[in-house]
From TrEMBL:
Keywords for this protein: Lyase, Pyridoxal phosphate
Keyword Lyase carried by entry: yes
Alphabetized GO MF terms: threonine synthase activity
Protein name: Threonine synthase
Modified residues (N6-(pyridoxal phosphate)lysine): K112
Listed GO biological process terms: threonine biosynthetic process
InterPro entries xrefs: Thr_synth_N, Thr_synth_N_sf, Thr_synthase-like, TrpB-like_PALP, TrpB-like_PALP_sf
Length: 495
């Protein structure tokens, strides 16, 4: 299986090269040339397997230049060793006919762990396989969750260093503490005097800066990315769609072969795109519902065919979905048209004009698979309260957006397929807004008081990783201006 760039189909690489590079040099994203096809027998073969075994079988379909043994080691390192707080890894919890896929049982309590526990394993294996001479330096700009999950995943992985930049004022107290207390011999965390866009633009500038790239190469380093533009981050996410399906068959909620729906709280379009890949491979999926918060650029796109990022940016209580450029939509569009020239035109329009439009035929092809809904702030809080009142179950604001979108879709479309809502963060990462939703007074209380407060309502234990932050020593106190990020990298690498 080869991977091609969405902007030049002649730019063809192996899985390990795609994972090492992170992004194609022509500015495009790597996609699989074809989708491996599965049948009912394959699904049956997964049915009684552990999550790890399911992962190994699915990964093998895509990682054709990795040996079965290599895949097995990668998966065991990622999802074994009690790194997740449940043996199921990604369990489904069901209430009557509502099903919620909990993706936040990993070490940082965010769904990013599902991919960022495995990506470092795949990358270090790829470095060994390709006999790469240079080490990799992963640069991450984070608005909170990705930074910690990437630090945890790459911590002490051979031949890789990781540098995370976070906006000084732009992350929650818990998220900042998670990052500045990170241990590991190959990790660096730096605060940026600016917002997330400053951090992200700074990282992109460095990726495109020939002088610094040449200097790094001469000193034995190459840059790469841990964001969902990297194929190695998308691939692990395909697994839980299959796993959820098998679990529902095992609980007799569906019959083998029956089509189901998934609703996905969406930002960069990585998570839901993995669901599309699962469907293209042959998993019985009817619809994928894309749930957005007030930054509803995708809802508008699915309704009109026009993607328009020229709009007000809202800071919401579901911050991991506060995004106006959903990078992975580029991959979906490529699969819809199979035309790299067309992709160059659209992406160029997006960059220069801030907008592009797909024609009616393409839009119909997309909406045959995808539906979209969005939710405002007030209704997000109300949904948290409603779900708690109805089921005594606490959800975080991102999950609430999806929960409501799933209901709205069902009511509107009269589609009674079994529906799975993807739950992307532990409510303990968003204590104050969740407590506010439950009508609990939060003012004047610190994060750890709020954690204990939420425990009174939430049956789940407080994740060990969050409890351990109380009193943990600060290891990273570096801070720099956005213009000085390159210097900060050189200083850390001592070059
Ligand atoms: C990253 C994230 C999302 C969005 O996922 P995408 O793959 O970017 O669409 C949703 N919820 C949470 C909690 C996240 O961290």
């Amino acid at each position: 299986m080869k991977y091609i760039s969405t902007r030049n189909i002649n730019n063809k690489v192996s899985a390990s090269e795609a994972i090492i590079k992170g992004m194609a040099s022509d500015g495009g994203l790597f996609v699989p040339e074809t989708f491996p096809q599965i049948d009912k027998e394959f699904l049956i073969s997964l049915q009684h397997c552990s999550y790890q075994e399911r992962a190994k079988k699915i990964l093998a379909l895509y990682l054709s230049d990795y040996s079965a043994e290599e895949i097995s080691t990668c998966v065991d390192n990622a999802y074994g060793h009690n790194k997740f707080d449940t043996a199921a890894i990604a369990p489904i919890v069901s209430f009557n006919d509502e099903h919620c896929l909990e993706l936040w049982h990993g070490p940082t309590s965010a769904f990013k762990d599902m991919a960022l526990q495995l990506l470092p394993q795949l990358m270090s294996t790829a470095l060994k396989k390709t006999k790469a001479e240079n080490d990799i330096v992963i640069l991450v700009a984070t608005s909170g969750d990705t930074g910690k999950a990437a630090l945890e995943g790459f911590c002490d992985v051979d031949n890789i260093k990781i540098i995370v930049f976070y906006p000084q004022e732009g992350v929650s107290d818990i998220q900042r503490r998670q990052m500045i207390t990170q241990k590991g011999r190959n990790v660096e965390v730096i605060a940026i005097e600016g917002n997330f866009d400053d951090a992200q633009s700074g990282v992109k500038r460095i990726f495109n800066d020939n002088a610094i790239n040449e200097l790094l190469t001469s000193k034995g380093y190459n840059l790469s990315s841990a964001n969902s533009i990297n194929w190695g981050r998308l691939l692990p996410q395909i697994v839980y769609y299959f796993s959820a399906y098998c679990d529902l068959v095992n609980t007799n909620d569906i019959e083998m072969g029956q089509k189901i729906n998934f609703t996905v709280p969406t930002g960069n379009f990585g998570d839901i795109l993995a669901g599309f890949y699962a469907k293209e491979m042959g998993l019985p999926v009817n619809k994928l519902i894309c749930a957005s918060n007030s930054n509803n650029v995708l809802t508008d796109f699915f309704a009109t065919g026009t993607y328009d990022k020229k709009r007000e940016f809202f800071k919401t209580i579901s911050p991991s979905m506060d995004i106006l450029i959903s990078s992975n939509l580029e991959r979906l569009l490529f699969h819809m048209v199979n035309d790299d020239k067309q992709l160059n035109t659209w992406m160029n329009d997006l960059q220069t004009k801030g907008t592009y439009t797909v024609n009616k035929e393409i839009l119909e092809k997309i909406t045959a698979v995808f539906a979209a809904q969005w939710l405002n702030e007030e209704d997000t809080l109300t949904t948290i309260k409603d779900v708690y009142d109805k089921y005594n179950y606490v959800i975080d604001p991102h999950t609430a957006v999806a929960w409501h979108a799933a209901q709205a879709y069902k009511n509107l479309q009269n589609d009674d397929s079994c529906m799975v809502v993807l739950s992307t963060a532990s409510p303990y990462k968003f204590n104050d807004n969740v407590l506010k939703a439950l009508n609990i007074e939060v003012s004047g209380k610190d994060e750890f008081t709020l954690l204990a407060e939420l425990k009174k309502y939430n049956k789940q234990n407080i994740p060990a990783g969050l409890t351990a932050l109380n009193g943990a020593a600060t290891i990273h106190s570096g801070i720099c201006q956005p213009e000085k990020m390159a210097q900060a990298i050189k200083k850390y690498l001592k070059i």
